[in-house]
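S.,

Sequence below, as promised.
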Amino acid sequence: MLDILLLGMVLVELGIIVLLKKKKRLIEVQLHDLKNTLTILYSLIVSEQKSKHNNDLVIGVLQRACLQVKDILVSQKTQCSLICIRDMVLSTIDEWQAIITENIEVEVEVPEKQMLICGDKSELKRLLDNLLQNACRAMPEGGKINVTLKETEVTPQQLSHCVIKGKKGKCVALRIQDKGVGIAPKLFKKIFRPFVSSFTQGIGLGLISVCKILKKYQASLAVESIEGKGSCFSIYFPLVDYFEKKAKILVVDDDAMQRALLEELIKQDDRVCFLAETPYAALHIMKENPDIDLLITDMMMPNMNGDALYQELLLINSRLKAIILSGKTSVKLPPNALFLEKPYNIAELKDLISQLLAKQYDS
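The prediction came back faster than expected:
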């Protein structure tokens, strides 16, 4: 397995060299990100920490590598969804702490409060990977990386000091600070150009990838660096005001255990949950609460199936989105509905919920 992984990394390296000559910049950045993921994967596999937690990390990183390969081979649209930036930062740090050397310490300070942004999960993951990798490379002799997350207000004055200027107003600030070599003054204004790197081992594409992602989400970036003392990258992601209102979700299932499970998942994310045992009970709840945002329903139920129920509920709230659960491998879906096959993955269900709530905001 290690030989296959090493061969994959060599092929990625060759792919970058070939594409550099052809100047296909978009694919260069994608290959660079894939190489970063393969490096993490290789480190996890050779790690002496043999545990279920380590195995879960390997599977997660392997899934990410597969998605990145697919992204290179097939042009795909950005999948905008609601993302808890706190959870994403913690899970990414968890991966990195499993592979970094013993002489590098990562100190994390994040609030308990959920801070939600709208974006593409895989892209934001790549952004965090690139910044953490740069912080590690900046400290070849070891040191401490400080990662902080907090809600803040971005003023026009603050934007004037940013190298990438996004939206002003309510934001969540992510800061990644290292105590490394810093950036030489002569390179500081050039580090966001392609093929410019402050490291001897690097082709200068990581920060290009960061810039592309930040501009897409109207996020801002401020960089402070003192040569010989370290660097601090501060990113300001706009918070989506819509999500200050608690999303309302209606769960319909004739199985009491399924209803209880879904209720717990929904309340974990601080959302309002309505429960209905039958389609008729769901119709009554919807009439009393016509501003419900999302329906999660079983497909096969007595008297009325889930797709038919959804069509009835749309007559009350035309903006309602739906997730239809079924033991079948596929079902014919109405517009604005997504399908999830039973037994389903909890993380996948949460992603679908976030995706549809984000679309609810966009519409």
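The first helix runs from residue 2 to 22.

Coffee later?
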